[in-house]
Design a protein that fits this description.
Layout lengths: L10 H14 L4 H8 L3 H8 L7 H11 L3 H5 L17 E4 L2 E5 L7 E8 L14 E8 L2 E5 L2 E5 L4 E5 L4 E5 L5 E8 L6 H5 L14
Antiparallel strand pairs: 1-2, 2-3, 3-9, 4-7, 4-9, 5-6, 5-8
Helix pairs in contact: 2-3
């Protein structure tokens, strides 16, 4: 098999991109090698095209450099529609809560408009990796973070680490509505964080 017909032909393209991405991230060869667990000599060979990076190595370097494997390979992602029209936000109900997906799919964050009824899920406490942000559109909300309890009125917002045990409940008789943004869980354990009764794939805020 000739060099031009296999993966080695891609090395001159991938190698300089690895070097340029590292430099753009502000890391020296030695620092990047230390973070990745690779030797500076091995990383240098990858950047000069003498060695071909494996997929695990590309995943590791992409995480260290703050990019994606597609970015390292020079692949152009498909254009995503940036606008979500109100008439296309279909309501989904789960455990008494109502959700409207307010963001695009395939993103690192999920944005939702949520109606929180009174007296539902008040005893469910969530703990999982990530961050959450919410903004109260209507009504009054009670937010419990660890040992602290907060009352949020219309126009109030909260931004917190999801590893802090948290719980949300409506304080007003007619419930509350809020905008909710959270980082998506990328593991099979996500369903455990969303509650046992949440159906798979339901756009359920992890702070139920």
């Amino acid at each position: 098999m000739s060099p031009t017909s296999n993966g080695d032909a891609e090395l001159p393209i991938v190698a300089p991109r690895l070097r340029a991405t590292r430099r753009n991230s502000g890391l020296t060869l030695e620092t990047a090698a230390r973070h990745s667990g690779l030797s500076p000599a091995h990383l240098s060979r990858l950047e000069t095209g003498q060695r071909q990076p494996s997929l695990p190595v590309l995943l590791l370097l992409a995480r260290i450099y703050g990019t994606t494997v597609s970015g390292l390979l020079g692949e152009t992602p498909a254009q995503r529609e940036p606008i979500v029209r109100a008439d296309r936000m279909e309501a989904t109900e789960a455990e008494g809560w109502t959700y409207w997906r307010a963001g695009g799919s395939g993103r690192a964050m999920q944005a939702l408009r949520v109606r929180v009824p009174v007296g539902v899920q008040n005893d469910l406490v969530r703990v999982h990796p990530g961050e959450e942000w919410l903004y109260v559109l209507e009504g009054t909300l009670r937010l419990t973070l660890g040992d602290h309890r907060y009352v949020l009125d219309e126009g109030d917002s909260a931004h917190f680490d999801s590893l802090t045990p948290h719980r949300i409940a409506a304080e007003t008789p007619h419930g509350a509505q809020l905008l909710f943004v959270h980082t998506l869980l990328q593991s099979g354990a996500a369903e455990l964080c969303l509650g046992e009764s949440a159906p798979h794939g339901t756009p359920h805020p992890s702070s139920g």
